[in-house]
Amino acid sequence: MEKYLEVGKIVTTHGVRGDVKVIPWCDTANFICDFDTLYTKNGETSFKVIRARVLGNMAILRFEGIDNPNKAEELRQTVLYINRDDAKLPEGSYFVADLIGLDVYDEQDKLYGKIKDVLKTGANDVYEIEADDSKLYYIPAIPDVVLNTDIENGKMTIHPMEGLFDAN
User: Fold this and answer.
1) Residue 80: HSE in the Cβ half-sphere, 13 Å Cα cutoff
2) How far is CA 90 from CA 78, 87, 94, 95, 145, in A?
């Protein structure tokens, strides 16, 4: 499992004190605001967060040592990461990076394919499953369908909805 996970990208500066606007690549901007330290890829550079708030769907962050718009402008387009060890996920929640590539089986151990992507739809996530023949299927990430997620063994067990995997 990767130690550092992408959470968003700095898209512009905000105000005159060196704040930056971050577009979240995670569930919400609030999630980003919960971290005291953010990083660049592989933890190469760390940014100590001294102020964080949400504005619309963006996170507004102020980093230690970045105290004017010119310094903040130098960070534009920087992808921000969290250290996995700093995150506390609710029971039954997973990082998308950990779900991608899981083998998807039903209760009878029939393999349907691998999770290729996780789509955010509003009400619930949807898992994009790619079969061996490259055909794509979509299953809702709801308890009635997803029975078990075993990250360590690379396996998800589902109860397929009627008609979802029928060949037509």
Assistant:
1) 31
2) 28, 10, 8, 11, 19
pLDDT tens for 37-51 read: 999 999 999 999 999
pTM: 0.79
Going by C-alpha positions, the residue among 17, 90, 86, 105 that lies closest to residue 53 is 17
The burial class, CB within 10 Å (0-12 / 13-18 / 19+), for 126 is middle
Query: Vertex 97, ends 94 and 102: CA angle to 5°?
Result: 80
pLDDT (tens digit per residue) in 112-141: 999 999 998 878 899 999 999 999 999 999
Q: Are 129 and 139 a contacting pair, CB within 8 Å?
A: yes
Helices (H), 5-44: 29-33
Closest CA to 81 of 3, 19, 164: 3
Tell me the CB-side half-sphere exposure of residue 55, using CA atoms within 13 A: 13
> Which helix H or strand E contains 70, and what residues bound it?
helix 69-73
